Known about the structure:
The chain is an alpha/beta fold. The protein has 17 helices and 20 strands. The longest helix has 27 residues, at 85-111. Nicotinamide-adenine-dinucleotide (NAD) binds at residues 141-145, 150, 168, 170-171, 200-201, 204-205, 218-220, 223, 226-227, 241-244, 275, 373, 375, 401.
Amino acid sequence: MATQAISVDTLPSYNPATGETVENIPRTQPEELPVILARAQTAQQKWRQTSIADRCALLDRLKQAMLAARNELAAIVVRESGKPHVEALFSDVFVSLDTAAYYSSNLSKLLASERVPHHSSAAKLKSGRLFYEPLGIIGIISSWNYPLAIPMGQIITAVAAGNGVICKTSDFTPKCGAMIQEMFAKAGFPDSLVNIVQGGAEIGQALIDAGPDKILFTGSVATGKRVAEACARNLTPSVLELGGKDAMLVLADANLDIASSAALWGSFTNCGQVCLSVERLFVERSASEKFLALCIEKTKTLRLGPGNDTATDVGPLIRPQHVQRMKDLLADATSRGARILLGGNARPDLGPCFFEPTVIADVDSSMRLFQEETFGPILTVQTVANADDAIRAANDSPFALAASVWTSDNERGRQIAAHIRAGAVMVNDAISYFAIAEAPHGGCNASGWGRTHGRTGFLEMVQPKYVDVDGLAGKEKPWWYHYNDSLTHAADDFLSYEFGGLSAKLKYARGALKTFFRDHGFKKRPS
Length: 527
Ligand code: NAD
């Protein structure tokens, strides 16, 4: 039988549920990046002049195109990432649609110039305004776990702000990248404004080296460090959305039935391959036994299977080597005293990437399961004495992305949130803030820097420009040379007036005012 030759210049679109390569997608070559950048720059020069109304109309057309193709988009996300179809709809497709909807209705508000009121007397007669201009070309490097939601959310924000985009989608999900390109073309965006490039590390580096105006990177800590180094060489600013090790704090007064369902979903959704997964669960001792029993009972009801079966709750991991990693993490934990209460096994009978949803207790900070990002379907529990211990344990991590607090007392939840080092804390929910367009997302320490989403994320895509118009254009400023004793005294009076108390203000007002009406005598002074 003749075998079909596969070009080395393609990326396999691999289905983790079956282990099959379904299709091959053409790779971008590193030397193409400077050419793609130059074309994007030309397109962006025109795009930045496009009115906000026209931009919003195109974003609305993008939304319509994605809505019409929603099941096709979800099916490709399922095929390449393995997640259940309903998760692809609720996460990837929802976030893509909602971001387009948000910017098409809010862009003029977000880009409106703002008056900058001045507090100091010296600046009162100047009128200041802040304008938000596009940065130019935004380079986006994305992960595979939300292959539509993450790149789409970032691309839409970038173009809404007037930028062009070159986005390297993950080499694990090349078909999703191709679909993104297709959606922008279908919506009628200008040629070369949004460019999807396909490949691995070599294309990521070539994208950075080509010199875009900013890099938005989503991925692991190890790659994030390489990206930061490469950006630093060209002084390219970056946003780094890196890993998480999110804590879930279950207080004794929480509704344990609700909290246990949330613990399952927070740990197992997308097979635990979420930067915001619940990866360290701390439960107060008095609630621990009941809570764990509920988690075990409910985990037993979950169906493991392919994402295209509508009855599947938990799909496969992304690649077979990730199955081995789960085994290694669990072996390390049990060798140090942790107890697997449920699951803990690979399921080769279902396919090469399946691993059972697992509940493991008595995990502590000496174990890899608490130190490293798990990125798999493992609900990892530690019992703590009280809320203070839970806070201490939650903060004992190099990661600081997000966390959740579970309590029937919202005020107590808010107070505990104030003590947790994280970019976001949810009280009585987990993960879902990522789908709120107004909520900023991002962390600090090993979880990276900068933000995506919300106004804070939008501001990462623009250059703020301050424009100041002088109200006394016909007068020389007092500090413009011909310094002398009298100006020195006047400056001294001015400082006493400006920063002294009421009596100083009365005493020095005249001297300070004089400063503003000083005659420099430029024409009189001999040269
Ligand atoms: P990864 O670091 O392996 O890859 C991320 C992207 O970087 C991919 O497109 C990859 O091809 C590219 N890349 C790899 N080496 C590169 C290099 N040297 N230079 C430039 N680009 C390079 O991460 P992943 O496995 O795709 O994603 C999983 C990780 O992403 C997890 O750590 C997860 O927590 C994190 N993540 C974070 C967020 C967040 O918002 N904070 C969201 C999703 C995923």
